[in-house]
What does this fold into?
Amino acid sequence: MNRPPVKIRIRGLRKSFGDNRVLRGLDLDVPAGRSVVVIGGSGTGKSVLLKCILGLLPADAGSITVDGEEVVGASNATLDRIRRKFGMLFQGAALFDSLPVWENVAFGLLARRQLDRAEARERALEILARVGLGAEVLDLFPAELSGGMQKRVALARAIATEPEILFFDEPTTGLDPIMADVINELVRRSVEKLGATAVSITHDMASVRKIADRVAMLYEGVIIWEGALAEIDRSGNPYVDQFIHGRAEGPIRVLQMAPADRAVRGEPSRHGP
Amino acid sequence: MNPLAVTGRATIAVSRTVGGIAFFALDGMIRGLRGPWYPRQILRQMIEIGYYSLPVVGLTAIFTGMVLALQSYTGFARFEAPDAIPTIVVLSMTRELGPVLAGLMVAGRVGAAMAAELGTMRVTEQIDALLTLATDPLRYLVFPRLIAGMLMLPLLVLVADVIGVMGGFLVSVYKLGFGPIEYINRTFDFLEAQDVISGLVKAAVFGFIVALMGCYQGYHSRGGAQGVGAATTRAVVSASILILTADYMLTEIFFSR
Ligand SMILES: Nc1ncnc2c1ncn2[C@@H]1O[C@H](COP(=O)(O)OP(=O)(O)OP(=O)(O)O)[C@@H](O)[C@H]1O
Ligand SMILES: [Mg+2]
It folds into this structure.
């Protein structure tokens, strides 16, 4: 298999909020036209990572390039141009609550002034069908939808302009298993049929196995393991093993332990000082 | 506690905020004027500010006009000069009370709503979502509000002027025994175009201030519901103080000669 070019290259990415050092020198390559899934415990900084790549949160240090163009410290105009390559599904949906569903979905199309409003409404209907929603939701407002429906509308909004790069922050959380599978299929299809590059975050291992070409695990501010999906079961990495089997026991400290305990267990040296 | 350090820190904090607001205003206006424009958003804000503020501004104006007539009567009757009432009412309304009261009422109604709306959009990541959808929040959210504030407040003040004069008229004619024709004639005796125009210019400035503080505080709000609440309060308080400050300065400029 020939190696695709790198679409997003991250080197030494650091991001803190006050004393909370979230990303501590993170490195990651996202190959073009592949689907990368980032896994990791709750609160480890997965969402922050996506927002740093989009320049929604300013990185403290390091480098992020998209198609070779630097995001960290870029001007507003450059960021604007880079962001046009992306579609993002936010973890909390982030639908515009002053606009009806169809305008939410068609927002990117209308903003690019490719279509008039009547055409955009038609397109919104087509795209909503792909996430299992029908014409009856077109004129509802986001507050009138269930959580899972909001998520799917947000997903429809993210893919509406068929962007080159798709970010999905927990696309299947809050969906029933059947609908989750529909969404997994959709992510897969976006990569295979449209040739998009996708970075997804999920806690759901079934979803990981369905949508990932490559998997990266974030722990204590760095990527501690990265590899092809097939290698995930024989990664030889105790952190990955613990995570994919969902065990409370293991090297990942879920409950706060005394520092003495930590020394006994022997922390691996790769993550930050 | 070194008093110099405390003063210095406060000065730096204040200058930083003032600079931040000035930059935000300039950035919003320049980017907004360069386009792309969002006429729907502008229209929506104009209706929100202009049309829906009519009742509250109208009520304020009519009672203000009535009180002005009553107060001047009880005050001036002592000097045997009740004839001055129409002039006092119309000059106070157009030059001062129309714009200031409308500004303060709109700050409470519209400024607060803007801060709450933008604040909610900020904390629920809707502003981030705009950025990922090739839309500049300054052009899409802030500029329409600034423009609408600047355009609609003068219109509201014009209405307030008329209603205020009507309030004075009602009290003077039905309570104080003025002749209706006489009252109206006297209203226009000393009124000059500059009185009305200065009031409208003030209104445009106040409208800008209200929208600016609403947008600035909302846009920069942090945290959840509590942060949005705090931003709303800050928007109303800072807009009110700025309106009163600007009012004095504008009055100096208009009438110091
Ligand atoms: N805007 C912010 N201001 C301050 N701290 C933040 C902010 N955003 C995130 N954090 C902190 O950064 C850390 C990582 O947050 P993030 O949302 O990236 O977690 P996550 O890995 O996405 O978790 P989850 O799987 O639960 O969504 C958390 O400790 C959080 O408190
Ligand atoms: Mg998250």
